[in-house]
Structure formats: structure tokens, C-alpha cells
Write a structure and sequence with these properties.
Rossmann fold, 2 domains, Phenylalanyl-tRNA Synthetase, Chain B, domain 1, 7-stranded mixed beta sheet, 14 helices, alpha/beta, globular
Amino acid sequence: MKFPDETFQEIIEGKTKLLVPKKSITDKVPPMRPAFFNPKAKMNRDFSIIVYATFLKQFQGPKIFLEGLSGIGARGLRVANELDVERVVINDLNPSALKMAEYSANLNEIKNIEFSEKEVCRFFSNYSKKGKRGSIVDIDPFGSPAAFFDCGIRATMHGGILSTAATDLQVLNGLFQSACKRKYGGVPVRTEYGNEIAIRLILGSLRTVAARLGVEIIPIFVESEMHYYRTYVTVRNRPDQQENLGYILHCKNCGHREIRLEQEQECKLCRSKISIAGPLWIGKLFDKDFVQKMLEENRNLETDKSCEKILNKCLDESEMPGAYYTLDEIASIMKSSPPKLEKAISNLQENNFLASTTVFCPTGFRTNANINEIIEIFKTIQ
């Protein structure tokens, strides 16, 4: 394959020049051949740059980035070009994608990058020994990342970051429960807040694999977008002593939900049979201090303008209770039109409840009020 020709195009993302297939820009669905590139995932890559820049600024060890499924290398090239990192190794089984990545590396005069053409876990096994592991390990597959949790954790050094993306949304959102149980070890419930359940299932599966290996994972940031879920966790070489696996109990009769360590069969509000999601992660999804540092670091980076707004929402909800509500869901129960989100949150706070917006849904909110208390407060909103 010769570069460049009329089937390829140079673009700039962040501060980095990328050679991409022209059809990935013009076609509605980016083609798989000669290599896959999704221009709509730019914000996803922007958030990776913010997370990694924030992490690298405070990390004392060797700064090594390992990417298991790089495609044309957009993320890895941006890390090498835009961040303070010593070594970047990107891996993909598609030789055409790697050739494009090499071309882009030359375009940007990047010297600290290496290229690998191996199956993902074979690639990571080369970096699984102490002293060879990555400080940042990135896994971005088509479909489920679950098959790569084990080798990804093994390739992440103590105190490093493991980031994984999932695009098997139908499985995680409850359309194929047996497939979800098989891949992630837990089952979802189809609810208005299904994306939160999905991310908690991913983290729960990661935590289970990590515990088997005698290491601990600590979520610092998560993303929920229309086409993917992405999690960022720090990995520590010590056993996890926390009780952070449990269940979300959801009542489809009255809408009550709660996060619990143990299962229960009956709704405590209306005594109906409860639906159970899990086992899944029941701890925090965001590290408040880390998100605050992301906001500060974002000012130094070339990222989408909406990143700051999203990060501010993440900061607001970072220490709020799990399992958010939506205005439409409450309005449907009340058989009335929904109030304005700001009014709903301020009224909950005026009644001495915790309340915030959520990054997971534009009409969503988090609160420690139960469904009956929310309805009573919403009745008073003019």
C-alpha cells in the first residue's frame, strides 16, 4: 500500500496530524477496510488525553503507554505527540492500519513510538513482567473488552491506569442477559438508567478478575456515550479489602431503586417483587480529586469545548448516591409534565436532600431521596 493516494486524507485532531481513509470521513458508517477510524469518537479520544495528561503529571514512575487495539493509531499518536510520555507502543493485527500509523508518526516527527502486529493478549504478555509493564494501558475493541481484562491488568504497573472501552451496548443494556452474564459475570435490568448499570457491570467484572490476580482496581473516571462505555481505573498491587461488589435492586412497580451488598426479593416501599441487577460495582464511579485536576489540566489541552461542561457535571455528582432518576420517569408515574431540571434539583435540596445533575443523562438527576419523597416534592413545584 502506497501513501498517500486519493483514497486517504490528512486531518488534524487535537495537535496531531492523522492520515485516515477518506471514506471514514464521508461514509455514514466508517468502513473496516483498509483500516477502521471513527471521526465521531474524537471526544472519546479527547477525554483520554485529559485523563492521561492529568495522570502523567502526578505519576512518579516510568511513563509508558501501551495500546492493544490501536487501529490507525489515533489515540496512541496523540499521546506520543501531545503528552509528556517516554515511550508509546501501539499494537494492531491489521498491517494496513499500522502502516498508516507509521505514516502519521512521520508526519508529526514522533520518535518515541513503536509498532507491534500481534494478537492483543500476546502483545500484553510481552509487558506482563515487573519492570516492563505500562503506566497507561488502553484497550479499545469492537464489542466486549472482557476477554482482555486479565492480560490488560497483568500489563499495568502498580499505580498505573487501565482504560477499557465497550461497544456491546445491547448486551450490557439487557437485551441479551445470558450473553451479559457469560461475558461480565452479572446480569442487567432494563431501566431508564441502564447505562449506569452497564458501566457498573463492566467495573464489577474488572474487579472480579483483579481480585483473582491479587490486585485492586479503583475507578477514577467513566464515560457513557451513545456508541460506547469507557472506564478508567488505577491498578494497585495489593488485595482489595473493600466490599464493593453488590446489586442494584429495582422495583418495576413503583420505581424504587437502591444499591445493596445483598439481594432482596421484595420492594421495601410497595412490597412488589424486585428486579435484581448484578453482581456489579457498587462503589464510586469518579474520583473527585482526580476530576478536579482533569478540569485544571483541560485548560492546557486542545480538546472539544464541551469537555469542560461535562467534567463539571462529573465533579458535581462524584460523591452522590448511585442509580440516577430521570424527569420523564417521575412525570410518567405522576401522569403530569416534568418540571425543569434546575427547579427539581433546587427543590430537593431545599427539602434537605442531596441532589445533582448527572453526566449520564441530560434529564437525569441523583438524589438520596426515595421515589415517594421525590414525587411528594415534585407535587409542590409550580
